[in-house]
Design brief:
about 0% strand, 13 helices, mainly alpha
């Protein structure tokens, strides 16, 4: 599926990548602002993960987070594998396995809910009489529907025990059947409920921190896109760009190509054109944005894994996981 998708998306990917000579014509101060925003965005993501994991170790969170992100960005449907690597790296630092799993799950749910909520902030523009293309309007509708579904899922998980008990029992049965496993998992559902209650209690006390960090994670990433657009000399409409950004971010959740490679380049450049950005500026801005949000973090993740290996040794399969 990834190969077929990349074949279909190859013309758009080649078009974006071939615009690299224009990177040297971008306004350097706006480009610097974009890089700083992207770095701050990743810092917020790591700080949020550290908050939900309830750990003080920046080294463990940052190395595991960036290494897992690199795996996600380099393998087709790499999100589950990246999460597994991240989980095992966190467990290797001494963090409790159930605590690591629940923290990663909570962080993911918060992040996805925030992405689906983005189009809602552009609704005043849509209903205010501004001319908006049908494609961007559909992106806003998709975001609104997805936001409602994610919120419902989050409420069910946070308020009911039966769902977690059934889920834990199913996962426990599957894990115990998968070879090789010398230690059988027991009472996973009950432990998930206990961990959920702990996470819910901590988030209840620190909800404003979680809200600020997830807003910083996505908001700064969005500001990075605005900055690279300004670096091209374009004068983007922030609300229309927000719709283009949110639609692309939602499409990236589809596990088709590694890290949305090709899919993001095709969708973002096309949606920016619908947001009244000149075609040439939209293409080079997409390339500059992807350099900061995809390529550089992927390289940094490889470096982080090497640093992790030097401190904790080889990554081993946890026998007492779950």
């Amino acid at each position: 599926m990834a190969g077929l998708s990349l074949y279909v998306l190859l013309p758009a990917l080649v078009k974006v990548m071939s615009s690299w000579p224009r990177l040297f014509t971008l306004e350097p101060w706006w480009l610097l602002a974009a890089v700083l925003c992207e770095a701050a965005s990743f810092f917020c993501a790591m700080a949020l993960l550290r908050l939900v994991l309830r750990t003080k170790s920046w080294f463990a969170v940052v190395t595991a987070g960036l290494a897992g992100n690199s795996v996600t960005n380099t393998l087709p449907a790499g999100a589950p594998v990246g999460a597994s690597v991240q989980y095992r790296m966190l467990a290797g630092t001494g963090i409790d396995t159930v605590q690591a799993a629940s923290g990663l799950a909570v962080s993911s749910i918060i992040g996805v809910a925030a992405l689906f909520s983005l189009p809602i902030f552009a609704l005043p523009v849509i209903f205010g009489g501004t001319a908006v293309s049908a494609g961007l309007v559909h992106a806003g509708e998709l975001g609104g529907i997805g936001f409602v579904l994610i919120v419902v899922l989050g409420v069910v998980i946070l308020t009911t025990d039966k769902t977690l008990l059934v889920l834990g029992k199913a996962i426990q049965w599957l894990m115990n059947k998968l070879p090789p496993r010398r230690k059988q998992s027991k009472d996973l559902g009950a432990r998930l409920v206990v961990e959920r209650n702990t996470v819910r209690s901590d988030l209840g006390r620190n909800w404003w921190k979680a809200l600020l960090l997830i807003a910083g994670r996505i908001g700064l990433d969005y500001f990075s896109l605005l900055a690279v657009l300004r670096a091209t000399g374009a004068r983007p409409n922030p609300s229309l760009v927000l719709l283009a950004y949110s639609a692309t971010a939602i499409l990236t959740l589809l596990p088709i190509t590694p890290g949305g490679l090709g899919l993001v380049e095709a969708s973002l450049s096309g949606l920016l054109v619908l947001a009244n950005i000149p075609t040439g500026d939209a293409v080079v801005a997409t390339l500059a944005f992807r350099l900061g949000s995809y390529w550089l973090p992927t390289i940094a993740g490889g470096v982080c894994y090497i640093l992790y290996r030097r401190r904790y040794g080889r990554l081993r399969q946890s026998e007492d996981a779950a």
